[in-house]
Amino acid sequence: FHILLLNGPNLNLLGTREPEKYGRDTLNDIVSSLQIQAQELNVQLSHYQSNAESTLIDHIHLARDKVDYIIINPAAFTHTSIAIRDALLAVSVPFIEVHLSNVHAREPFRHHSYLSDISSGVICGLGADGYRWALHTAVNRLLNSN
Ligand code: DQA
């Protein structure tokens, strides 16, 4: 199976960006540990981070017919992007939405997501562990659907 991990704007600054909210792990730390987990689970994991909405959309388009599951932290685009929602609907690859922080305990504008109702699951507030649970679940679901 091929799993695509997508991270949105400002997540390249993880480690130094508001660590009390997002933790001290860098994006590299998180992706390296997910690569090890992917190897153990015998799946291929690709990763892209972008600060640009268009690049994220391009990578969602490329996932069509190539990727079995998407794990996405759309960051601030969660709360703004009808375009990312439409891209995910267009390619119809199942996806899990991940947030490091508990968005529901934060500002009201973070309570709404343009993606949650079309996702196969949402994880928030578990920090970097959220990505690990997402990968675990994506692989389990793929194994059980075959
Ligand atoms: C985030 C939460 C978003 O509200 C915020 O804009 C982010 C990160 C998270 O992982 O907690 O950039 O997606």
SSE layout:
Layout: E1 2-7, H1 19-22, H2 27-41, E2 44-49, H3 53-63, E3 69-73, H4 82-91, E4 95-99, E5 121-124, H5 129-144
Parallel strand pairs: 1-2, 1-3, 3-4, 4-5
The structure holds 1,3,4-trihydroxy-5-OXO-cyclohexanecarboxylic acid.
Give a written overview of the molecule:
The chain is of the alpha/beta class. It is globular and about 40 Å long. The mean pLDDT is 97. It has helices spanning 19-22, 27-41, 53-63, 82-91, 129-144; strands at residues 2-7, 44-49, 69-73, 95-99, 121-124. Bound molecules: 1,3,4-trihydroxy-5-OXO-cyclohexanecarboxylic acid. 1,3,4-trihydroxy-5-OXO-cyclohexanecarboxylic acid (DQA) binds next to loops.
* Share in β-strands: 15-25%
What is the count of helical runs?
A: 5
Strand order of the largest sheet: 2-1-3-4-5
Largest sheet: 5 strands, parallel
* Mean of pLDDT: 97
Helix fraction, binned, reads: 25-40%
Secondary-structure class: alpha/beta
Annotation keywords:
single chain; about 150 residues; alpha/beta; five-stranded parallel sheet; 5 helices; 5 strands; globular; binds 1,3,4-trihydroxy-5-OXO-cyclohexanecarboxylic acid
Could you provide a short overview of the structure?
By secondary structure, this protein is α/β, with parallel strands linked by helices. The protein has 5 helices and 5 strands, in the order E-H-H-E-H-E-H-E-E-H. Helix content is 38%, strand content 18%.
